Structure formats: structure tokens, C-alpha cells
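Continued from yesterday's entry.
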Amino acid sequence: MRIPAKMEGMPLNKQIFGSMFAISSAIILLISIATCSIIFTNVMDLETKSSIQNLEHINSQLDFFLTSVDNYSKSIIVNAAVQDTTNKFNTKRQKFSEMDQMRLKDELNTIIQSTSFIYSVNIYSDSKQLIASTEVPTNEDSLSGIEISSDRIWLTAKKISIYDRNQKIPVLMLLQRFYSYSTGKMLGYVEISIPETAISSIYENTENENNTCIVDSTGSIQSTDGLYPLYSVYPNLDNALFKNKSGFYFINNNIVFYKYFEKLNWYIITQVSSNIFFAADLLPYFPFCFHCRLRSCNLHHSVT
């Protein structure tokens, strides 16, 4: 083994100590690198599992909301009071009274039973005129300008807040045509709305501290935890998002986990800063490194 030039001429005990110290340092460095790698892998696995579980939870709850709304709409459109009152409004407008409207509103409230994630239920005529609503105040023009291309569609909109008439809140709503079960003639439309706050509360109430949002097929944010504005374009988009049903990718110093929500053609996103991995990886070694550095200084001082 060749002695380094800077150690030539040094006393033998110092040469032996220097060689031992160099070998020990190399071994410690290799062990530290291996340990860091193991810790990083474990942290990555834990964070990945946590993010995937968070996505699954949001997916499950959102699916529950939509399935519940769908079931409520089915109950509403076959309800005798809804059928009769809507038909009366369409065919005998002059005989339709405020009492008819109040009875229909009461029937709607009875069906939905103050479900917490339902903002409102509206019934419209075949000409899109509002017949009855559980909203207070009522959004008289909530179907104006909406193209209804099929028997049932999901869309986002804004409604007047029940707390402040000067404000509007974002909602996700189901709009469905319904027909007379006796004649098959189209009677009108039922609209059931879910406030965006009910959707965002799904992930706001979890223990996961990562940033979460939901985007549509264009990347526009439809629900948010507040980090990015609603309806803005998600800044960390990647083509991988639209190619796969679920997965993750690295972008802008972030790790983005995503899951496709087929019913709405939306993507649920959990964004994790990559700094969390490096912080978790290196932080435990700061005391160790400091201790090693201090000890090496003391040994060097004692030898010299």
C-alpha cells in the first residue's frame, strides 16, 4: 500500500493513525450512504402509501356523493307529487298556485331529508322554467344558457349563497330530464346540487397534510384545498396525468400522485413536495455528523 505523499516523513504512529482514520471514515461514509438510501426508500414507501390511501378515500367519498345524488334523483322523478305538480304546471298554468309550489317544495325536502352534502333541489318545467326549489334565496335563472345535450349531465355552476345574496358559491350539479310514467311525455328537469365546500371537506378532514385538488380533463381546478384558486389551471400538469388512470410523476420539485375519477372525467391529485423526503432523510444524521466531526477534531488535536 503506497503511503500518501503528505504522510511521508511523518512518525510511524501518525501514519498508522492516519491510515486507520481514512479507512474508518470511508467505512462510515459507505454505511451512512447505505443507511440514507434505506431511510429514503422507507420514507418514499410510506409517503406513497399515504398518498394512495388519501386518493382512494377521496375517490370513495366522491363516488358516494354522486351515487347518493343519483339515487335521490331517481326517487324524485317517480314521486307522484312531483309528477302531478309538474304536469299541472305544464298543462294548467293558470290553475297552478303558490300552495302547489309550497307542497312540492315540502315533498322535495322530505325526500332529501336535510342531507348535509346536498345544497339544493330544483324542479323545472319542460320549458326550463323553475317550478319549485329548496333554495333560499331561489336562483330563478339557474338553467338559463345551459345546453342539455342528454337525459342526464353533471356540470359545475355557481349559485347564490344562502348566507349572502351578493355572493355566489361554486356547485357541482346533476341535471336530469324526467318523463311521465303514465304517458312517457317529457315533464321537465330535476337539478340536485353539491357545494364545492362539501367536496373539499373530504380531504380537508384527513390527516394527510399534502396539498390536494381535483381537476377536469383540461386541467382546470374544480375543487381545491385553497393552495390554488378554483377554476385556475393546475400549474403542475404533465402529459402522464391524461395518459394513465393513476400513478405519479415528478415536476417542479414536487411529486404528484393522481387518480382518475371516471364518472366526471376528473383527476384527483395529491401533491407532495420532494423536500419532505430529503428533510426526513438527512435530519437524523445532523447530530451524528456533528458528533463525528467534533470527535475527529479532538483526536487530531491529541495526536498532534
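--- second protein ---
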Amino acid sequence: MSTVTLKPVAGFCVKTTVANTQSKVFVNVAYDKNIPPPTTASTDYTEWTIPVLVSDPRKDVDKAGSSCLVFDCIYNPSIKSNITQLDSDFRLFIIELSFQRIEAQSGNTVLLTRTHIKSPNIKSKGKLEERTVTLPDPKPRLKPAHKPIIETIGDTNAEKSSLNSKPKSILKSPASGDPSSVINRPSWSWAKEPIIGDEYTIALTILVPSLTHSLHATASLDIEPRRIIFSVPSIYFLDLNIALDDAEFVALKRLRAFDVDNARAEWSVRKHTLTIYC
């Protein structure tokens, strides 16, 4: 453990919203040499381990005087040379990584929208303040113990989800039969979670505040190597087809295929999230 003073230098800023409240959020990507550089053993940057320090949220106002939240995500300046243009894949990757770390730090109470990300003509929202932080030494991650494919957590009296069946490698139609009849495409995020050595699992977290025990019987979850469909008739429909050429999947599609045979999922009643590990 070491205590250092960070003097972050502004890089760029993006604007989005909180998925369930539509509150405005500004994310400042900044740099400081005290943040450890990425481990770059692979030429594929999606395989890198990229340290980032995420600030606590602070309140501010936008140009119209409306309230907003601001987060600073501070990286080692060595990544700047990879961010060459506004729409570069690496820049999008860093934005997605920043969003994931903000969501993880909030315990998934703040889930950010990916569909309408804007780049205001500012390097940072507000002044980047000096801060003294303690940087921990890296700790090895242990392989998680085997669990059922899908389990309910956060409610000891809850029944196990009726989604608790082994994911299929052949995609089938969602239970609703008509995606146009559903009313909401739930917000989602993903993270690459190390296990042991070079092994990792892909964790996709879906925000499901309207999911209840009584709706379990009508829900469906289908997993293919490059596609996931989650459906609750008249409530949710989410089709993640990462084989498509879509900016939403630019970082995710660079990873390996989903591990269909070992996939599992957890529904957190308290956090209102369904997390799929594949």
C-alpha cells in the first residue's frame, strides 16, 4: 500500500444519463502518472488489465442550470497515445471501461445509459481537484466456487428462479413470441472478471427493477456463443447479438465467445439485477 497525491490532467469528457432516472451524468477521463500503467502482454487491448481510479460522485449543474452528477476516471497517461480520434475503438473501450467501473463502485445502484452518449466540447466537467489516495497492491483473484446455473440472492425466503435451467446452445424464441409487445429494453453492462491466470468470465448485469417472483414462470433466458436473449413478456426484452456490427458491442465482441456450457446467473432481489456469468 502506498499513499500518493494525484494531480489529474483532463483528457476528455462524455455525457450520458442514469438508466432508471434519466439524470444527467458527466464522466471525466483524466490522467495521472501515479496510476499504474496497463499490463499489455497481449497486442489485443481488450486483454489488458487497465488500472483506473474512480472518484465519488459530486453534484454540479449543466449549462441549462439542471442538476447533474460528475465522476472522474483517472488512468495512467500511457493510454493517451491509443486514443487517436473521436470514434476510435480504443476510446470507446475506455468509455465502456469507465462506465463499468463507476457502476461496480456504486454496487450497481448507478447504471449508465449506453445508447445516447455525447461528447461535449470540454475536456472536463468542472475542475479536477488534487486528491490524496492510497493505492493497494494487486491481489490474486480466486476461482469462484461452483454454484447452480441461476440462483436468487438477497432474499433467503425466495423461491429459486424458474430461469434455473441450463442455457441452450441453440437459440429459441422468447416466451412472449412478439418482442414488439414488450415495453422496456432493460439497461445492461458487462465486465471481464479475472479468475486464475489468463482465465476470466464475462459478467453481464441487467437492471430488472420490475422483475418479481410471480413473473419468473413467464421469463426466458437463452444463451448462444455470440448472443443472449432475455425476455419477460410485457415487461422486458433484451437481445444482445454481439455478432452485429454495432458500436454498443465494439469492446464486448473482441472477447471470446460466451461459455454456454458453464454459464450461470444470479438474480439479486436487493439490487434489482440479473447477472449472467458466461
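Helices lie at 89-105. The two ends are 33 Å apart (CA to CA). Will compare against the first tomorrow.
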